[in-house]
Amino acid sequence: MTPAPDKDSPVVSSSSPATGPLPFGRLAIVGVGLIGSSLARAALARGLAGEVALADADPAVVARAAELGIGTSFHADAAEAAAGADLVISCVPVGACGLVAEAIGPVLKPGAIVSDVGSVKAAVVERMLPHLPEKDRFVPAHPVAGTEFSGPDAGFADLFEGRWSILTPPPGTAEEAISTVAAFWEACGANVETMTPAHHDLVLAITSHLPHLIAYNIVGTAADIEEVTQSEVIKFSAGGFRDFTRIAASDPTMWRDIFLNNKLAVLEALGRFSEDLAALQRAIRWGDGDALFNLFTRTRAIRRSIIDVGQDTPSPDFGRRPPGK
Ligand SMILES: NC(=O)c1ccc[n+]([C@@H]2O[C@H](COP(=O)([O-])OP(=O)(O)OC[C@H]3O[C@@H](n4cnc5c(N)ncnc54)[C@H](O)[C@@H]3O)[C@@H](O)[C@H]2O)c1
Ligand SMILES: O=C(O)C(=O)C[C@]1(C(=O)O)C=C[C@@H](O)C=C1
């Protein structure tokens, strides 16, 4: 059982094998991009649902999902997919999650659980919860796993294997709904942790959102520097810059929505980052080699500890990608 967080303890629990009513009779996934299609593939491959109903607002995505055979039914209408489902997961950009909740709310069967995968959590709760008939059956989630690719072709069944999925149930969420969603993610190969939406947004602002902002910025700056031609950016991007270009290739809609919906936490993290950057600027200007050396030693240890605990693979491009990409 994974209890709902209270306000005094933002991080409540780490994963321990959960049990739940798996397989579901019907799982509905709304938004069949990288994450939605990976979940659909994982659910089919691992036998987590009898029916996997897929819906997307883009007709080309619905057609492609059908062609790929990654579900059991394919819908242009989210409500049609959600009708009769035991679990409905919204896998659309954060800015569109309110529209999904509004569409599915009226057709949810009694007892159906609703979840999502958005990279921001407080705004998702604010946008989705008002439209849901059973407020205690909404269990927001965020799989901390992804790539810079989008769309149904980019997904793969093992994306969540060994990665974290963070659940952020609002206070009052039914324990049984939380443990069912936890069991679902564990069956997809993920480790589950539960925390408050606000705490999630603070943590992810520094570990995910700010790094993306920095990558977008540095690639934009490099492209703008007139003496560094486009061809040189490409030619010399085999080094550290290459990692930034990978991250800066991430989906513009998804990341626009993340920054607009986690504004305060990102601005707070950016403030701290700017202060530390100014300190580095001073160290370089005044020849303070010790300050530089000490920081670089500390950050090298952090990277090595990340690899040691198996949270990353030391691949040349630092990325996880679908087979064949
Ligand atoms: N990409 C990642 O690395 C990653 C990782 C974890 C979580 N997330 C979160 O997962 C969600 C989806 O990201 P993705 O990378 O799969 O995006 P994606 O662009 O690959 O897919 C999103 C899909 O949602 C569809 N869509 C948009 N609005 C819709 C609506 N109103 N109704 C139905 N379908 C709609 C789009 O047509 C598209 O097919 C986002 O909220 C993102 O923050 C992404
Ligand atoms: O590996 C990547 O491409 C990612 O950026 C994945 C990443 C992350 O920052 O770790 C990006 C956003 C998601 O919300 C979760 C995971």
From TrEMBL:
Domain of life, per lineage: Bacteria
Domain called Prephenate/arogenate dehydrogenase: residue spans: 25-314
One GO process term, biological-process aspect: tyrosine biosynthetic process
Keywords, ordered alphabetically: Amino-acid biosynthesis, Aromatic amino acid biosynthesis, NAD, Oxidoreductase, Tyrosine biosynthesis
GO MF terms, alphabetically ordered: NAD+ binding; prephenate dehydrogenase (NAD+) activity; prephenate dehydrogenase (NADP+) activity
Pathways per UniProt: Amino-acid biosynthesis; L-tyrosine biosynthesis; (4-hydroxyphenyl)pyruvate from prephenate (NAD(+) route): step 1/1
Keyword NAD: yes
Pfam families: PDH_C, PDH_N
EC number, as in UniProt: 1.3.1.12
UniProt catalytic activity: prephenate + NAD(+) = 3-(4-hydroxyphenyl)pyruvate + CO2 + NADH
Entry similarity comment: Belongs to the prephenate/arogenate dehydrogenase family.
UniProt name for this protein: prephenate dehydrogenase
